[in-house]
Amino acid sequence: MKNAQCKKCLYKFFKKDIYTIQQFQYRKKPTYKWSLEFFEKLEIDEWDSFCEKCIMFYSKKSNDAWKKLKVKLFIVSKDSEFYEPRSRESKKIS
Ligand SMILES: [Zn+2]
Hints:
The chain has helices at 32-41, 52-93; strands spanning 4-5, 12-13. With 94 residues, the chain is mainly alpha-helical. The N and C termini lie far apart (79 Å). Zinc ion binds at residues 6, 8-9, 11, 50-51, 53-54.
């Protein structure tokens, strides 16, 4: 009997085919801690059931969000590198 249901698409399937975000703990990046926080914002917890299609969707979604975050961090660090020599120089002048 198909008695499990995907939280996202509401598709019914066999319990043995349940996927949860717990499988993301085997990913190196994003870290599982980060993944949990990400899914918490989407109101998804470790015990929610998903079909294979939807867990793949969330896998990609969280991965994309993680990559965007990394780009942002990179820009910030580039900025501080850019400003640091300038502030040193202004100290020299004064
Ligand atoms: Zn689904």
